[in-house]
Amino acid sequence: MPDHHRMTTLIHLPPIGSLLRQAGRPLLESTLVPLALFWVLFTQAGFDAGLLAALAWSAVAIGRRVVLRRKIPAILVISTLLLLARTVVGFCTGSAFLYFLQPTVQNFVFALALLVTLGFERPLLAKLADDFCAFPDTLTDHPHMKRFFKRVSLLWAIVFLVNGATTLAVLATQTVGNYLMVSTAGSYSLVGLGIVASLWWFHRSMRGQGIRLRIGLPSPVRVG
């Protein structure tokens, strides 16, 4: 018989607007702005100018946080290091194909990293999630939450593998301009679907463990 007296843990998250801002800021800062700066400078001043503009933005974003003594998001550190490697290759070869080949290959690297860190106490995906949504300790330390991130890491490994394969195909057949437009739209559509699937899975998984999520309400309480 079902246990109607099972304790339900009620977890309160920030308002939806706050969650969207927190999730969107790292994405905008680490990916979209550098990409836009590269394209503008690439079309107006040439390939080298585009390389420098994208890297300079990321360097300033990290430098500002260091000066203000603010936490540097893991996604910003990772994207900047990868962008630095891409820029070096771009300058050394002068090849836009090789410059954009690297982020395509990085999809496969991320997929591998997600799978490798499944054995850690907190896999890579859980650490990256902290940049997009600061879960309360009540939820972060919950054993089922840890199991959830291990399982959903498999989903995101598939997302990155599919994204890598499709962007590689576009890069091999399209111009730089078409590649940026098609790959950006396709990548973020795929990532969006992954986010929706993850949220649905997360909500379903937490409810199965007697955890209910409320958005925009005060601090956590426990109800019977």
pLDDT under 50 segments (min length 5)?
A: 1-5, 219-224
What is the count of helical runs?
A: 8
The end-to-end distance, rounded to whole angstroms, is 18 Å
Sheet with most strands: 3 strands, mixed
| Order of neighbouring strands in the sheet with most strands | 2-1-3
What is the averaged pLDDT score? 78
What Rg is obtained from the alpha carbons, in whole angstroms?
A: 20 Å
Strand percentage lies at 5-15%
The number of E-state strands comes to 3
Number of domains: 1
Helical residue percent band: over 70%
Structural class: mainly alpha
What's the order of the H and E elements? EHHHHHHHHEE
Q: Which of globular, elongated, flat, extended, rod-shaped describes the shape?
A: globular
Organism: Pseudonocardia dioxanivorans (strain ATCC 55486 / DSM 44775 / JCM 13855 / CB1190)
Transmembrane segments: 36-62, 74-98, 104-120, 154-173, 179-202
Protein name: Intracellular septation protein A
Keywords: Membrane, Transmembrane, Transmembrane helix
Task: Provide a descriptive summary of the structure in words.
Residues 1-5 and 219-224 have low confidence and may be disordered. It is built from 8 helices and 3 strands. Helix 2 runs antiparallel to helix 3 (74-93). A 3-stranded mixed sheet has the order 2-1-3. The protein has one domain (8-223). It is globular, with a radius of gyration of 20 Å. The two termini are 18 Å apart. It has 224 residues and is mainly α. It has helices spanning 16-45, 47-68, 74-93, 96-116, 124-132, 137-140, 143-173, 176-208, and strands at 8-13, 211-215, 221-223.
